[in-house]
Amino acid sequence: MPDPDVVVVGAGFAGAVMAERIAAVRGLRVLVIDRRDHIAGNAFDARDQHGVLIHRYGPHIFHTNAAKVSDYLSRFTEWRAYEHRVLADVGGRLVPMPINRTTLNALYGLSLRSSDEVQAFFDARAERRERLENSEDAVVAKVGRELYETLFRGYTRKQWGLDPSELHAQVCARIPVRTNDDDRYFGDAFQCMPADGYTALFERLLDHPLIEVRTGVEFADLRERYDHLVWTGPIDEYYDRRFGALPYRSLRFETETRATPSGELLQPVAVINHPSEDVPYTRVTEYRHLTGQVHGASTLHYEYPSAEGDPYYPVPRPENRALYQRYAALAAREKGVTFVGRLARYQYLNMDQVVAQALAAFTAVFGAERSRAVH
Ligand code: FAD
Ligand code: UDP
Fold first, then answer.
1. Each residue of 164-178: pLDDT tens digit?
2. Is 4 a pocket residue for ligand 1 (Cβ < 6 Å)?
């Protein structure tokens, strides 16, 4: 292939969507590279040595309210209907998470029947806050201190290595609080899993004669010339961490596979959360719930949060935001480089938000252009 017009660094959702749009709509030659030995970024899935389809970087459930995003991705995959459910292990008792009426009745031996009764329960315990300054505020202002301590504080301290009071309110506010008995983890209109998995979706996204994909390749080792760069890696890495390293939270997984001769499942739901700090992991995922795979074995992932390892999560707190802004100011002045995705924008984004961001970035940078010069 001759030198590409555009190089895309990172073959996750941000990079793959940008590459697809640039090739399919603008007719430009795109080279996509990733330092990992596979495409799909953190959404990568593959069969393990037991033949069980797992998500290598932790459970990924697709959900969105943006029809534009589900319509776009539907061009590259069929879907399998799946509504995600999570139970929290509180002293050996499994209760629905997010908190709902069933959670309260199970934890407190109550028989609350109406939403009004549940709301009154919360109102009697909620702590008044003028402003939600952090994730502790976000929870205690809704459900009070006891539920916060039972279900949020320990989990959050393990997940982030920080107290909820040190994290942006948005982190714990991702989890809704319900007064009915809806026990789905997400409330979005569209909740599905790609029928053949995420990697297959990415293979179709990137299957275009103008797109070349090279995995196991570092940006620093690239010798090609190009007109435009799309950067979906960590923004501080692009600038050699000149203002200091942005913190990212990582994860380590322990895997357990057990025989399931009749195709049975090991857990009642896909994910069991462990909010207690007495347990070192945060959650246990059984992938066959997510994938629908019927198989003679089932694989569980025990998730151990870690400060070391691949960047999985930007850490939303004020000082990190301030540091990011210094890099973002450099990025705004950059000619011929587009920064997009969870690591390049240092935002705690779900997959659908990354797809929406990439579609918007494509339009902003390439959509209005007429010539092939895309700076
Ligand atoms: P990534 O997927 O991280 O892709 C960036 C890629 O760039 C990586 O593959 C990396 O190897 C590559 N790269 C970086 N720097 C370089 C370089 N210098 N040279 C070469 N390659 C480079 N979202 C949901 O919607 N639902 C979920 O249930 C969900 N669960 C999640 C669970 C976990 C454990 C995690 C960590 C995230 C979850 N997400 C979920 C979020 C989802 O993973 C992200 O929104 C999405 O994958 C981000 O895509 P991206 O392309 O921005 O980044
Ligand atoms: N959280 C918690 N207890 C739970 C589930 C979530 O305290 O049982 C908090 C925790 O801080 C977590 C955040 O809410 O990081 C967001 O949860 P989510 O399940 O959305 O996290 P992700 O799937 O992105 O890891």
1. 999 999 999 999 999
2. no
CA distance 300 to 325: 39
Backbone angles phi, psi at 343, to 5 degrees: -90, -35
Q: What is this structure's pTM?
A: 0.97
Q: What is the ipTM of this complex?
A: 0.99
CA 205 – CA 354 distance, rounded (Å) = 15
To the nearest whole number, what is the mean pLDDT of the chain? 97
Alpha-carbon separation of residue 217 from 11, 38, 168, 231, 254 (angstroms): 11, 10, 35, 14, 27
Query: Which residue, chain included where needed, has tokens 């939403």?
Result: 115
Alpha carbon distance 274, 90 (integer Å): 7
CB distance 8 to 32 below 8 Å: yes
Q: Name all residues whose Cβ lies below 6 A of ligand 2.
A: 88, 97, 151-152, 155-156, 159, 171-172, 174-175, 273, 275
Domains parsed from the chain with CATH numbers: 6-39+206-246+314-367 (3.40.50.720), 105-173 (no CATH)
Q: How confident is the model over 294-314, as pLDDT tens digits?
A: 999 999 999 999 999 999 999
